[in-house]
Amino acid sequence: MRSRFAFTLLPLTLVAGQQIATLTAEVHPSLTWQTCTAPGSCTTNNGKVVLDANWRWLHSTDGSTNCYTGNTWDATLCPDDATCAKNCALDGADYSGTYGITASGSSLKLNFVTQSGQKNVGSRLYLLADDNNYQMFNMLNQEFTFDVDVSHLPCGLNGALYMSGMVADGGMAQFPTNKAGAKYGVGYCDSQCPRDLKFINGQANVDGWTPSSNNPNTGVGNHGSCCAEMDIWEANSISTALTPHAADTPQQTMCTGDACGGTYSSSRYGGTTDPDGCDFNSYRMGNTTFYGPSMTVDTTSKFTVVTQFLTDDGTAKGTLSEIKRFYVQNGVVIPNSESDIAGVTGNSITTSFCDAQKTAFNDKNVFADHGGMAAMGKAFEAGMVLVMSLWDDYYAHALWLDSTYPTDGAATSPGVARGTCATTSGVPSDVESADAAAYVVYENIKVGAINSTFGSA
């Protein structure tokens, strides 16, 4: 994952907070998912989803005055981090009307642009175990399966399903000034150590806040929120990437300034996380006919994505050693494509694959620097939260996913070509206008023993 800047492309009043407001009732949409022990032997879980705090209305605790408007804080309500947390309250969400989010049974649909009283772009949601706690996952010696429809996701959009090293209650127990917690989608973190979050660890991110120069709704503060991240699925109809991101500390920690590293800092590799990850993008690995419209995995219709997290001893106590991918479409099990890059073999993510890929692409091996596969496994042991989102990219236009990136590189150089999208594609103002009706659907989530969620591979 290269950037999540577009997560904060919000209506003027939709931001993150720590106190609780009641002007809008917070009712979590229901979403069922299954745990499996063998093919056809699955138990249904009655889960719910919650909208991330950064999309929500933040206003004064004693009224409805915005604490944040455009990309600036109210100087009276929010003169500093601590005072802002006391003065500002986070409100409930109208999931379908304001945000274009609908859930039915095991299916979750996220619309790209929703126009109601204001314009909303994209969304980020988390799976809940109950109304006050995120569902935690340890994927060691397990597989994760879901169905997805990316047929309405063009160049520049990213429908992402991934896991984050967030804590179960959203930080309420650890940070007493955090009154909202998981119930209001608080506590986000990822491997970019995002500094565009309005609240981190029970305090506002006011101090040092610099409004964005190209996004009227976002900015960068002094603090960021770091953790390990497992990108099970980042995709549109053109390209997809499977990417683990290691971290020195697997669960959420707060960083300061450029020491955060990642997309939001002047030194990308200055932090405690791996912002690049070790990715498997079939197009980038040399197979240009595997994933896309009318290809082996045909993105014009729904398909199933299976990801297996294998350990060295075949138990949940072992060390993460391999991440394997399968697809199922029209009843056919499709193994992931093989690498066609000289010096890089295989169709799964292993330590040897990552080391060889970094060498072939002349990329810095930050994944290994931060512990690689073993560190990713430690994040699973600590527990990770399931995230489902749809976003466009103000920083790099998602070219790192579906085009030639860096744009001044030669497409014939190993690792530079990632998809067929033009280097001029993905500009947020363009996609928000031309592709406002875009959407993604995630459904039939299953978690269980290896080969239990989709049949034998």
UniProtKB/TrEMBL annotation:
Pfam families: Glyco_hydro_7
Annotated signal sequence range: 1-17
Enzyme class: hydrolase
Superkingdom in the source lineage: Eukaryota
Biological process according to GO: cellulose catabolic process
GO molecular function: cellulose 1,4-beta-cellobiosidase activity
Keyword line: Carbohydrate metabolism, Cellulose degradation, Glycosidase, Hydrolase, Polysaccharide degradation, Signal
Assigned EC number: 3.2.1.-
InterPro entries per UniProt: ConA-like_dom_sf, Glyco_hydro_7, Glyco_hydro_7_sf
SUPFAM superfamilies tied to this protein: Concanavalin A-like lectins/glucanases
Reaction equation(s) it catalyzes: Hydrolysis of (1->4)-beta-D-glucosidic linkages in cellulose and cellotetraose, releasing cellobiose from the non-reducing ends of the chains
Family: Belongs to the glycosyl hydrolase 7 (cellulase C) family.
Protein name as catalogued: Glucanase
Organism encoding this protein: Hyaloscypha bicolor E
